[in-house]
Amino acid sequence: MTPAPHSTHRSHRAGLAPTAGVLPPRAWFDSNAPRLSLNGAWRFHHAPAVAAAPDGCWEPDYDDAGWGHLTVPSHWQLAGYGRPAYTNVRYPFPLDAPNVPDENPTGDYRLTFRPPPEWAGRPAVLRFDGVDSSFRVWLNGAELGSATGSRLPAEFDVTDVLRPGTDNVLAVRVQQWSAGSYLEDQDMWWLSGIFRDVTLLARPAGGVPDIFVHAGYDAATGAGTLRVDVDGTSDRAGDGDDGDSAPAARVVVPELDIDVPAGETVTVPTVRPWSAESPQLYDGEVVTAAERVPVRIGFRTVAIEDGVLTVNGRRVLLRGINRHEFHPDRGRAVTEQDMLDDVLLMKRHNVNAVRTSHYPPHPHFLDLCDQYGLYVIDECDLETHGYVFEKWEGNPSDDPVWRESYLDRMARMVERDKNHPSIIMWSLGNEAGAGANLVAMYEWARQRDPSRPIHYEGDHTTVCSDVYSRMYADHAEVEAIGRRIEEPLDDPVLDAARRAKPFVLCEYAHAMGNGPGGLLEYQRLFEMYERCQGGFVWEWIDHGLRTRDSSGREFYAYGGDFGEELHDGNFVIDGLVFPDRTPSPGLIELKKIIEPVRIDLDPDAGTLRVTNLHEVADTGRYAWEWVIEAAGAPAAWGTLKLDPVAPGRAVTSPLTALIPQVDEIPDGAGEVWLTVRAVLAADAAWADAGHEVAWGQGRLRAPAPRRPAVVAGAARMDPPSVGGARFDATTGRLVRLGDLDLEGPRLDIWRAPTDNDSAQAAANAAAWRRKGFHRMHHRTEGIDVAADGDALVVRTRVAPAAEAFALLAIYRWTAVGDAAVRLELDVVPDGPWPDLPLPRLGLRLAIPAHLGLVRWFGPGPGEAYPDIRQAARVGNHGATVDALQTPYVFPQENGHRIDVRHATLTDASTGAGLEVVGDPVFGLTARRWTTEDLDAARHHHELHPREHVFVTLDVAQHGIGSASCGPGELPRYRLRAAPARFAVVLRRLAGTGRG
Ligand code: IPT
After folding, report:
1. Residue whose CA is closest, atom 6 of ligand 1?
2. Which residues pair with 724 in a beta bridge?
3. Residue 911: pLDDT over 70
4. CATH pick for 303-591 out of 3.90.1150.10, 3.20.20.80, 3.40.630.30, 1.10.1840.10
């Protein structure tokens, strides 16, 4: 087969042809035909501008001895050639389309390779899977062509120039900027070069040029239909030229006894359908006399029925994430292992859908989605977001000269990826405004692949989208859309059409830094309203590039760290996993909220309710483990026998029938909790048996109120003291408890602002700073012994400079034994308080640095905040102070443990230290730096341990929300300045020795 170079992409204006000399696009598939990977070490020359690039370096005899080496695939900026740059929406070059700056970094690549002699006389194709952003290619001095479309494949026919059995010289000139860059304004690092595989493919005459697998499933009958077309190539130009005529090919699927000619439709009376929950694939082959091509067939039908998106006739709820390709060392040149890591992590965290924001991923990733089961919205490599600042004036999306480029991109994606059952929708791209070229893409894809709905968010009229898609809509708007009572469009026809479409949030819950809050409330809306079919959290991974500072310390870099003239800072650090793919608390929370079975324990009603939120799977795949813990210690445990619950159904059972032990709890057992966990009963492809998928907790017994007896008459003045506690005579602050030195608790309202606090939309952090919340002054108004002689009372006024508002804080200290004191704190706002939430309300104290081990009883083990606490379960937990820190790439408030009943901070070797007992609960953070240090740091490695452990004991924290892009905290999570009362007991623990 030697398909003619297609010429349908010539545009009217020179410089806008997306490709030249490139073969028509086709599916990416394996084959038994020989192939040669050209990945590896290439010769490389980098020039800061085209003018400085070496002339004639594509000639075979060019002397490249002075050049360096660069690995293919990779990005040259990550190998020391030039520097990475990050902008989100703004183009890093003048808006002057289709022109690009003279300083256009240019990479010249050369490779000498030797194809086996058996290839002689056979057709061959050279394939590039991804080159950013444009390239020209020469083989043995002959120019093959050029291409743009960084995340799209380009194939060149090399039959006439390849010389098997001898040395061949391949030369590629890559330019960082091209007309294509105007279409690639995605929110990510600008990184260049040959970053995906380069492969030489022998193409046997009479082989399989292209295949299109059509495999549907009829939910009513359980039958599958299969037709595999073996085409020359697609007819994208609509000119009736269908490329080469197809060879005689057969389609063979042994497991289903299928052996039919290509193009023929077979019906399989009963077939197991493919879904994300049950990714059944059948292995088959497309066979011609000259070639065998393996195919993995998943029978499934995607449809929009009565305004609902269905797969195999069932409504799907997309528990999705947006995935950019990223690795902290390799950028977008990700390995198969990186891709597998992502897929396994997603599956293990209950994710069932991926939007490939904002470009087609490496095709191997889609193979993994087919295999492990993830629904995919495959998004085209298209974004022109920078035009938003010009009110979309000049946007390529509506300019006819760009039409071919748009169609070229869509065709290259659809043709490459059309055989993946995991792909349930095509997406035209992201944030490219509205326009005729998008409509053209939509229409082309509709006709080429009627089996998949098409997604596009950027035009809210939905003229080019089969679903109504939005990003960052707040809960109230999502609810209105769910009830189909959203604000109408001006055009009633468009409005009626949109109102009839299913709704997805293609982006929501911006996972930047500490967050996102508000997930639970979104999920409830998705479950309540049929139209709301879920969404995709923004985004999967922090794009922090591993870098070293001048003293060699490693850190993750973000925008501005490479001296960019324009950048968007840490807005690229907004993932559910850290750059090294460690799950962040946000992912742990998401996993809990999107669990596919819900376990509700209601000890008052005495019931256990299991709701199966799966689409097709019953609950037979789970084992149910339970444990009763009294004061955190396991008291009884076992495995439940539960009949399988059908998908979409819920079953309520009496607790005592299942777990008689719930009635056998002795008095004085303390706080007692029952935990039930759904774990995989058998190994799955993506996790071992025992992997926890879902859990629920119910409190069987509340703690008996335990108020230690106050030692009467223990308060003294001169110097101020209560029992074994000593206070500073001027400030009234606790300085010693027994033999333990402390810097006494004092009122604290500051937290190192989170990215969500700092967001322009929330404007909280800026207002807090303006009002001086981060620099409160403490004035002690009086230190007295109460009339009863029991309590030392310290009255303070806490206020920022220049302001008349204040918090009046009264500390009432009593002795509750030799080495323990009880503190009752009363806080009352005073004066003209601004209408602002408080960051936190609590106490801060400092204790010696060697008290580095923390144990607590309460929710854990991870951090939790008022609106991010579903993943925390009540029990005994422990961690070192260091391990309590969540290493957000951009330092901010973190590590807070919520509703702690009691905690100890001790010396790990002696057990000596401090115990804190809540009345009833407190929030806890402990860190080796102050809040001010945390606030000042810009990267995690800039935080240095001090000589103390700084502890905060919180009455409450303000919610986290998701305002860094989207709504802030819901009103019920707002912390208002209001009268508050709070009590804790502080006890000196002697331990076994020093400390
Ligand atoms: C939205 C973009 O689609 C996405 O790529 C990312 O930049 C995200 O924002 C924020 O991280 S667009 C935004 C202006 C709503």
Report:
1. 187
2. none
3. yes
4. 3.20.20.80
Atom of ligand 1 nearest to the CA of 471: 15
Q: Cα(385) to centroid of ligand 1, in Å?
A: 9
Q: Is 326 helix (H, G, I), strand (E, B) or coil?
A: coil
Quick: pLDDT tens for 329-380: 999 999 999 999 999 999 999 999 999 999 999 999 999 999 999 999 999 9
Indicate the top mutation candidate among 457, 507, 541, 962 to test ligand 1's pocket, ranked by most ligand atoms within 8 A of CB.
Answer: 507
> pLDDT class for 479, splitting at 50, 70, 90?
very high
Taking CA atoms only, the protein residue closest to ligand 1 atom 11 is 571
For ligand 1, atom 5, the nearest C-alpha belongs to: 187
Nearest one of 103, 180, 170 to 143, comparing CA atoms = 170
The alpha carbon of 715 and the centre of ligand 1 are apart by a number of angstroms equal to: 59
Indicate the pairing of strand 454-455 with strand 423-427: parallel
Strands (E), 38-153: 40-47, 68-72, 85-87, 106-113, 124-128, 131-132, 134-139, 142-148
What spacing in Å lies between the alpha carbon of 187 and ligand 1's midpoint?
Answer: 7
* Torsion angle in degrees (nearest 10) through CA of 729, 734, 736, 742: -130
What separation in Å is there between the alpha carbon of 750 and the centre of ligand 1?
Answer: 29
- Residues enclosing ligand 1, CB less than 6 A? 88, 187, 358, 430-431, 471-472, 507, 510, 538, 571, 574, 965
CA distance 967 to 957: 18
DSSP 8-state symbol, 386: G
Task: Out of 2.160.10.10, 3.40.50.720, 2.60.40.10, 3.30.1780.10, select the CATH number for domain 210-302.
Answer: 2.60.40.10
Under 8 Å between Cβ of 937 and 943: yes
Nearest-atom index, ligand 1, CA of 89: 7
Is residue 236 scored above 70 in pLDDT? no
More confident residue, 10 or 100: 100
Over the stretch 270-286, which tens digit does the pLDDT of each residue have?
Answer: 999 999 999 999 999 99
Which CATH architecture is the domain 34-202 placed in?
Answer: Sandwich (2.60)
Using the atom order of ligand 1, give the atom closest to the CA of residue 574.
Answer: 11
Q: Whose CA is nearest to atom 13 of ligand 1?
A: 965
Q: How far is the CA of 346 from the centre of ligand 1 (A)?
A: 21
Instruction: Tokens 């938003």: give the residue.
Output: 388
- Its CATH architecture, for the domain 603-701, is Sandwich (2.60)
Cα distance between residue 939 and residue 884, in whole Å: 18
Among 355, 383, 431, 573, say which to mutate for ligand 1: greatest number of ligand atoms within 8 Å of CB: 431
pTM value is 0.96
Is residue 43 packed enough to be buried (19+ CB in 10 Å), middle (13-18) or exposed (0-12)? Answer: buried
Query: From ligand 1's centre to the CA of 472, what distance in Å?
Result: 9
Find tokens 């999107």 and name the residue.
594
C-alpha 6: how far from its chain's center? Answer: 39
Average pLDDT estimate for 153-172: 98
pLDDT of 667 reads 83
Catalytic residue IDs: 431, 507
- The structural domains of the chain, with segments of one domain joined by +, span 34-202, 210-302, 303-591, 603-701, 715-989
Measured in angstroms, how far is the CA atom of residue 175 from the centroid of ligand 1? 26
Residue nearest atom 4 in ligand 1 by C-alpha distance? 187
Q: Is it true that 210-302 and 603-701 share their CATH fold? A: yes
Atom 9 in ligand 1: residue holding the nearest Cα: 965
**What CATH number labels 715-989?**
2.70.98.10
517-572 pLDDT tens trace: 999 999 999 999 999 999 999 999 999 999 999 999 999 999 999 999 999 999 99
CB-facing half-sphere around the CA of 770: CA atoms within 13 A: 9
Strands 308-311 and 302-305: antiparallel
Ligand 1 atom closest to the CA of 88, numbered from 1: 7
pLDDT given at position 238:
41
